[in-house]
Amino acid sequence: MGSYTVDILAVSFFALEWLVYAITLEHTAYGRDSLSARMNVYREVWVRRLLDREARMVDMQIMASLQNGTAFFASTSLLAVGGALALLRATNDALTVLSKFPIDITPSPALWETKCVGLILIFVYAFFKFAWSYRLFNYVVILLGATPPPNEKDIQEAETHVQRTARLFGAAGRHFNHGQRAFFFALGYLGWFVSPWVLLATTALVVIVTWRRQFASNAWQAMGN
User: Fold this and answer.
1) Of 56 and 193, the one with more pLDDT
2) Structural contact between residues 50 and 59, judged by C-beta atoms closer than 8 angstroms
3) Of 3, 19, 30, 174, which is the most buried if we count CB atoms within 10 A?
């Protein structure tokens, strides 16, 4: 194979695995039995039970904790982007360090910079997903505040409001999951900095671990009871 053929194949495998995993999880009947899908059902349950409560301060506190967690990940994404940019600027230093390893894994400067740019793009994608999720959670808070009082829970407007809020709530959770998935695959992507063969292995490992958490973990089993 050519000098860059294995790298191209490894990155293509990485992108394909990410895409197939995302499609399977969110757009197939198999994915509708995932942990995320099971949890999404309880978003609507929460909103429906909110109609029975006159005092809703606890619900707002729970929403605040969800927003804070999303804001944390968005901030972390920006820090990760900064770290990847610093890695890009330190190309010569990084290659010097790699050249001292017993096994020659030193890439060309152009390939190293390509790897860094790819990592930056993954974290930028994660930031936009977390930032949009945070915005959607803000919208959900507004809709929760506009929830009809208990004495109006049986009217059609209340049912429409519950469905609207649940859909927006689900969208916020879905974008959060996209950002978190980008973090997981970024860990797999780091294998490319060692070798394209390592990238193949770390990508497969990330897919196995994330699949197990969604379909074979203790949490998935608990939510099935």
Assistant:
1) 193
2) yes
3) 174
